Amino acid sequence: MKRVLSIILGGGAGTRLYPLTKLRAKPAVPLASKYRLIDIPISNCINSEIVKIYVLTQFNSASLNRHLNRTYHFSGFREGFVEVLSAQQTADNTRWFQGTADAVRQYLRLLQEWDVDEYLILSGDHLYRMDYSKFVQRHRETNADITLSVVPIDEKRASSFGLMKIDSQGRVVDFYEKPKGEALKQMQVDTTVLGLNPEQAKINPYIASMGIYVFKKEVLVELLQQNLEQTDFGKEIIPASAKDHNVQAYLFKGYWEDIGTIEAFYDANLALTKQPKPPFSFYDEKAPIYTRSRYLPPSKLLDCHITESMISEGCILKSCRINHSVVGIRTRIEADATVEDTLIMGADFYEPFAERQSGLQKFGIPVGIGEGTTIRRAIIDKNARIGRNVQIVNKDRVEEAEKESEGFYIRNGIVVVIKNTTISDNTVI
């Protein structure tokens, strides 16, 4: 895998994940109590022995840069690196990235300097564990110009994805974006060609792109230089190249979730608490997910009742009740608080004990969850200060609301408390 260069697309403004992306780039959004979204593709690369990694981004990239600089350091005896490439103005181009392909095109000169055979293009907002070496090996065995990683899809979900048709050799011959009715039926394929057994193929007769690609180096350079008006890989570059290039499909059979929306992000995080076996597990010694080492103390639980939940390190929880929730680093939860079906992202710092006891904080309310507070079906972003006897329960069952001045949004019925927000004592949401 020394001959592969990985390019992770950091995404645009992350509007579907707002307000979690208000102060950070989408790949820097916290995940599973202690990780960040960007840790998933980078860890998959490292576990696949692909260690030349660029991350392309343009929005709110300061926290992402800080996380990558503190986390990923390779030995001086290896040529590995993880580096952010932010959108920049040059004499040749004064525009922001216009799409996934345009982002790569703007840094093409730098990418061409590397003596590699393939470019691996990845997305920064998916949750999955994948050995990319098998993906690249399939690309080489079929002598493909482009290989797409695809997932098998049943008929119920198929119309929500961009679908592909393949021939008997696994070559992609047609694309259709979110087909319905008769057009959907026309996109059925024999997925046994890609490795499913007949029973699985009957249940999942469609294939959808994961937004993960391997390009031959010269093919990517040619496509980006010749089609300057095309700015997106999935919608323009790849469909247009299928006629004249060998575009192959590689079937991925494991868990994969696009967590680009608030609801999908919330569901994917809480699914990690399922027992006995969650759909995705971080407990894999052979393919670990890496993140920044913070050297935090163990969590302290004082007379708590906790069920079906994940508690990160460095937390202090007092006489509280927590059910089906994910609790992030350095979280403080006071006595008689109830947290259910909630993702708490934690805090970036500890407040001095004397300040918490005296109530002399700058904001008047300590970081964390106050005494007697109840929180249900919510996402509490980092450094939130939730006062005493607060009710965050979406009492009016609102599906969508924008209350930025009050410190929260509601998305798909999920209350999202904005980072660094203070919610006063006795507030009801």
Summarize the structure in words.
With 429 residues, the protein is of the alpha/beta class. It folds into two domains: 4-271, Spore Coat Polysaccharide Biosynthesis Protein SpsA, Chain A (Alpha-Beta Complex); 300-423, Hexapeptide repeat proteins (UDP N-Acetylglucosamine Acyltransferase, domain 1). It contains twelve helices and 29 strands. The strands form six sheets. Strands 15, 16, 18, 19, 21, 23, 25, 26, 27 and 28 form a ten-stranded mixed β-sheet that branches. Strands 1, 4, 5, 6, 8, 9, 10, 11 and 12 form a nine-stranded mixed β-sheet that branches. A three-stranded parallel β-sheet has the order 14-17-20, with no helix packed on it. A hairpin with a 3-residue loop joins strand 2 and strand 3.
Which keywords apply here?
single chain; alpha/beta; Spore Coat Polysaccharide Biosynthesis Protein SpsA, Chain A; UDP N-Acetylglucosamine Acyltransferase, domain 1; 2 domains; 10-stranded mixed β-sheet; 9-stranded mixed β-sheet; globular
